[in-house]
Amino acid sequence: MRILNIFKRVPDTYAEISLNSDNLDINKEGLNYVIDPYGEYGMETALRMKDNDNSIELNVLTIGPENSSELLRNALALGFDNSYLIKYENYDRLSPLTLSKIYASFIQKYGPFDIIFVPKVDIDTNFSSICGYLAGFLNIKFITNISTAQLDGDYVIVEREIEIGKEKLKVKMPVILSHDKAPYEIRLANLKGIMAAKRKPLNVIDISELGVDIQEHLIRVKLSLPPQRAGVKFLSSVDELIRVLKEEIKI
What we know:
alpha/beta
């Protein structure tokens, strides 16, 4: 069995973001990048499957500049068998449609895969359409927003949160699963894994090898930071509270 985990290289979620002077992009100088959180949950689910069946081959894929290899090395240290970097500097300007075409071309060339995990949403752009696009290009089944997944022969049993509670589904492989937050902790690489990762292959693929017409289907016109929150105002009496409610908040 072969599993592919796709993750996106994103700015550290704890980083303080500022904009360039043209308001068309974020200031990337000195910015730390990480594996997107939902991608991490998908990776942990795949690793748990391998914990139960060591014959499973785990593959991990991302697109980005050459220094994205550091994140792939981390995946190898966790227990992934093969890693693939599609080298493209301006990956963060690609639309979900173009990204999906690139991933589909990779899968057609390096697959097949029984399970393909993708993040439920790209936290940098807030797009959540890659799972559906990819399933359409590959003509295979997909399920969105899963929280857990377990193998059952030729099937995968998944659980996901829905408005009225939880839903459990059983689907035959191959399948694409977009991963939501999981109810378990994400593991960290240990020293043994870090040393073993140095002997594992890190495959760098130039995007031109995949034969995809790179287009910016979406053009960024402007970026703006969210409005700054108002500070806390301390009131000294009930009378002052009533005045503020009437005159300032207009209640």
